[in-house]
């Protein structure tokens, strides 16, 4: 029996020969970082591919979050979701901002707009939602609330590469959106990330801020940071962008396979595609109802692991349960019943472009057994 390891994700890698060709160009030019030609090219190509006005590349997906909060001078309290990767809340903490956790909507896993207003105080300055698993937030309702209270909206769109609602990029919602191009994401530059913004002035300011605030050899316009992407990873990113559509199509095939194979398994549920949405199939979470399925989520996780099939419990524990954040009033479990339920039942199945049919059969067999 095939017992080889099936990982939850697998990085999309550029063709080595082509990459070597671009590396030669970099070596010849001797321009290896600081807004080189591949960096400029990738920013343009990404803006076009993603259907957004402006993209600024970053060295990872955490620094654009931190920088967006700096650029908009966000202070005080920010409303956010506990059901995300921990970097979302860390970005607030690094800016001295108090995170205020609001519960999620069980239908999407995203911040529940109905619960946002009750969490607004005179100190609230912004909302930081996450399009979790690449499923779009209710951006319209969130914007209405933000406008009513004069709040900024920064989307952590780390999972939402290429996601569109009725033909429009979800990355155009809010004041800014941030992306992660980490190796584990749908589109990767090994490490990397980006910020999406609507106007040229903001793009210019962000470009200064990611380079220590330098606006010229002798001018520093603000307390910037160093979060520039280098030429080698920009070149890698240019090659990966050419194959990302095929990668997403392969992921869609995996999602369809799982949905068909698991639809009659008692106690196992999953999300369906949302109408009008172009999904990127970045994750495939299932939810285990222990009473109906007969086995707990953690037991299923361990059983799969013992058979060399690696799922991940994204997002367990909740960010609000980590020691740094546990003491906040909004971290009280009674404030976050849906988020707790989802975190305690979720298991993300292996989801990537390189899964074979026999891999998928092995995953499904383990769940059906
Ligand atoms: C991956 C991720 C990040 C962080 O991105 P890095 O590139 O790893 O710094 C932030 N938020 C979410 C929701 C993520 O999944």
Q: Layout of SSEs?
A:
Elements (H helix, E strand, L loop, with lengths): L15 H14 L7 H14 L3 E5 L4 H9 L5 E4 L6 H7 L4 E4 L22 E5 L10 H11 L2 E5 L7 E2 L2 E2 L6 E5 L12 E5 L2 H10 L4 E3 L2 E2 L10 H32 L5 E3 L6 E2 L5 E5 L1 H4 L3 H10 L30 H9 E4 L7 H12 L1
Parallel strand pairs: 2-3, 2-4, 4-5, 5-8
Antiparallel strand pairs: 1-9, 6-7, 6-13, 8-9, 10-11, 12-14, 14-15
Bound molecules: pyridoxal-5'-phosphate.
Task: State the main characteristics.
single chain, 369 residues, alpha/beta, three-stranded antiparallel β-sheet, globular, binds pyridoxal-5'-phosphate
Give a description of the structure.
The structure is a single chain. The protein has helices at residues 16-29, 37-50, 63-71, 87-93, 139-149, 200-209, 231-262, 290-293, 297-306, 337-345, 357-368; strands at 54-58, 77-80, 98-101, 124-128, 152-156, 164-165, 168-169, 176-180, 193-197, 214-216, 219-220, 268-270, 277-278, 284-288, 346-349. Helix 4 (87-93) links the parallel strand 2 (77-80) and strand 3 (98-101). It is built from 11 helices and 15 strands. The chain is globular, with a radius of gyration of 21 Å. The model has no long low-confidence stretch (mean pLDDT 97). With 369 residues, it is α/β, with parallel strands linked by helices. A 7-stranded mixed beta sheet has the order 1-9-8-5-4-2-3, with helices on both faces. Strands 7-6-13 form a 3-stranded antiparallel beta sheet, with no helix packed on it. The chain has a 3-stranded antiparallel beta sheet with strand order 12-14-15.
